[in-house]
Amino acid sequence: MSSLSLISDLRPATAEDMARRSVHVLSRRANGFVEFEFSIGWPELSVELMLPEADFQAFCKTHSIQNMTTTGDQIHEH
After folding, report:
1. By CB count within 10 A, which of 7, 22, 54, 73 is most buried?
2. What distances in angstroms separate CA 19 from CA 10, 14, 28, 69, one per listed residue?
């Protein structure tokens, strides 16, 4: 299935959808940067971002991230 068909299959966003923000950590680099995917509403639609660890933590707090999965077994909740 192509990405375009996934997008066209999405239902209209509700207020609850738009309030849900999530991140999926892809990697934590040796230079201190966190590479992650950020989504609003649908986890299937995300943008890939990279921030220093302190800025990443601030980003998650600012956007009220409900769950944040990292590589390995660590899970943090904000």
Report:
1. 22
2. 17, 9, 26, 18
